[in-house]
Every structure is written in structure tokens, then in C-alpha cells.
Amino acid sequence: MEYIERELICVYYRSQLIPDLYDLIGWHALVELIEVFGGITFRLPKKSEFDKMIRDIDIYKSLKDKTSTVDKLRIKYKISGKHIIAIDSKVNKMIKEYKEHKIF
Questions:
Q1: CA spacing 20 to 30 A to 16: which of 53, 73, 93, 98?
Q2: Given pLDDT bands bounded at 50, 70 and 90, which one contains residue 23?
């Protein structure tokens, strides 16, 4: 895309994320994103929320696959063993609800 076209996008969409998305993912991916999600309002999680989700999934998978223990995960994530068990229970419940109700 020509430089002037990028500048016009920035002027036209200056109060939106379109220029930032263009810089981040490029023109073709931006067009595809708009084709798929255009008109839909959605919220992206904060980085800290996303990191917590990744941690919770790792805890669940590690305990399910028996590749780690509560004690090792407690040390790895610097949280209590009770918190590890609570996270595992929470993720198990979410998976059960998903399978029962196909909520997603």
C-alpha cells in the first residue's frame, strides 16, 4: 500500500484502532479482519488477564497430564497450593459447562 493511502486511513479513522492495526498486522490481514468481524463490538483482554488465562490453562493441563504437581506449580507461579487447586477446579468447571451446554 502506498504511503499516502496509509496516511488517508489514519486521517479517516484517527479515533479508532484501524491505523494501529494496520501498522501491527498489515493491509491484507486488516482487510480480512474487517471482512470477518466488521460491525461487531468486542473486547480484547488486558495483557495481565491474558497471562492469567495462560497460567490457569497451564496449571490445569499440568495437573491433568500429571506432568507437574501442586507443589511444583506453587513454586513456579509463586501462589499457594490452595490457589493452585482452586484454579484447577475453576478450569474443570468451565470445561464441564462448555461440554454440557456448548456455551461457546
A1: 53
A2: confident
- Prediction pTM value: 0.71
Same domain for 95 and 67: yes
Domain total for the chain? 2
∠ CA(18), CA(23), CA(28), 5° rounding?
Answer: 75
52/91 same-domain check: yes
